[in-house]
Amino acid sequence: MNDKNVPGNDAPPPVFNMAEYVVGRAARATPDRLALVVYDDALAGTPHETFTFAEVEQAVLNIAGGFERLGLVTGDRVLVRLDNTSAYAFTFFGAIAAGLVPLATSTHLSEPEAAFLVADSGARAIALATHLPSPAGDALVIGAGDIARMISDGPRGAYRQTRADDPAYMVYTSGTTANPKGVVHAQRAAWGRRPMYQGWYGISADDRMLHAGAFNWTFTLGTGLTDPWANGATSIIYTGTRDSALWPGLIRRSGATLFAAVPGVYRQILKYADPAELADLSALRHGLTAGETAPEDLFADWCRATGREIYEALGMSEISTYLSSAPGVPRRAGTVGRVQPGRRIAILPEDGGTSPMPAGEPGLLAVHRSDPGLMLGYWNRADEEAEVYRGEWFVGGDLASMDAEGYVTHHGRANDIMKALGYRVAPQEVEAVLARHPQVAEVACAERRVRADVSVIAAYVVAKDPAHPPAPDALTTFAAQHLAPYKCPREVIFVAALPRTANGKVQRRQLTETISEK
């Protein structure tokens, strides 16, 4: 457990605006430095767009001013459903600059999913891509064309003098019910990310961070934009066709010194990219990975092919990453790294209590509630919020053990949350959709490992008519009509009955051992 007095865990200034901290400081210090580079063609010699810090700030404050002119006021929630372009980032940070609370979402959400987010969050406005239909309700629709005009013409606004504990943005993540819950982050969230700078990235103003994710992903908005900009470094985002073989060439052509991606992307690169290109990554210093469990052999395979290390981090939607390896923290096989400097982390007994477990003993990972990066709370979910606090500790549901040197071994989840393409998915959310299919009597979902390095969401289905079950494709198609693609099951397995406890609760951990019935 780290001591609270370790530098890096100090409180943020009382008056603190996340967008000003991330964008404004660099715009004042190095206005002409390149802040954002966008490639839409991995083979192109020149990028599609480039922006200096002064230009990023102009776009962000123009959005802020535009939102204020529309009558949006401090604390209003703004759902962002824009295409994967630089306008997404400017809208996100522009809302924060104005004291609004953006919700970063995907254009791939189904309309029922989007409608739930609008209703649950009480969104006052929706920044909407041109090809998406306007949802029902009273929320103000701000089209992509309106956003483009704000960026180019203003009016230029100013950074709202928010307090460190004022809401800054929301992330919807899987809860313990069929619907996701909103995680509310404070303006201080950016300040709370400072332990990651040297505790994971090893970043400086001279770095060029290439992130493999889209603008709408919180992993990209954080690791790909927030942290590089807060350090005066350059962010590089690729918005073109997703072809794993193209990444090495893009890393080299863009001059990336850092590359961030989920483990699956690294695995696909190793599988499909030209070995000669992998051996020539030029300026790249090392890779970064988070979002899902990485297979142990990935690190050695990548180092063998590229001569570069990958540093792993573990986190959660409520705080981002807090454990990691780094240039100054060598990897230790079987662990996810050490506690980042300045964090207060403990392993607590799984069955209750606030006394940390002895070194090497497994328990629940806990983060001290004084951490400035920790969420404000769950939006309108007081019952779920109460469940995750134990005295002064936030307990997120990860099982782990910590050795005497602070290295942490992750033992999985204490709950049933699944990981799909780096996203957390609640089985209840997928089950609630599939249960509506007329040929389904019962269904339960679980994460199923199909290879040493690949896990998928599997649906275990009890058919209403076992002699004539529905076609698996019919069920996956049905799911796709109501769920974002990353939430849809990749496998459908028919079973005679679901394993249950004596009190009737489904035992999802046993599902992955179930033999498919033919």
Keywords:
single chain; GMP Synthetase, Chain A, domain 3; globular; 518 residues; alpha/beta; 15 helices; 14-stranded mixed beta sheet; four-stranded parallel beta sheet; Rossmann fold; disordered N terminus
What can you see in these coordinates?
Strand 3 (77-81), helix 3 (86-97) and strand 4 (101-104) form a beta-alpha-beta unit. It is globular and about 65 Å long. The protein folds into two domains: 18-408, Rossmann fold; 419-511, ANL, C-terminal domain (GMP Synthetase, Chain A, domain 3), CATH 3.30.300. The protein has 518 residues and is of the alpha/beta class. 51% of the residues are buried.
Which helices and strands, and how do they pair?
Elements: H1 18-29, E1 34-39, E2 49-52, H2 53-69, E3 77-81, H3 86-97, E4 101-104, H4 111-121, E5 125-128, E6 140-143, H5 144-153, E7 167-173, E8 181-186, H6 194-201, E9 208-211, H7 218-230, E10 234-238, H8 247-254, E11 258-261, H9 263-272, H10 275-278, E12 286-289, H11 297-306, E13 309-316, E14 320-324, E15 337-339, E16 345-348, E17 363-368, E18 377-378, H12 382-387, E19 389-390, E20 393-402, E21 407-413, E22 418-420, E23 423-425, H13 427-434, E24 440-451, E25 454-463, H14 472-480, E26 491-494, H15 508-511
Parallel strand pairs: 1-10, 3-4, 3-5, 5-6, 9-10, 9-11, 11-12, 12-13, 25-26
Antiparallel strand pairs: 1-2, 7-8, 8-18, 13-14, 14-15, 15-21, 16-17, 17-20, 19-20, 20-21, 22-23, 24-25
Helix pairs in contact: 1-2, 1-7, 2-3, 2-5, 9-11
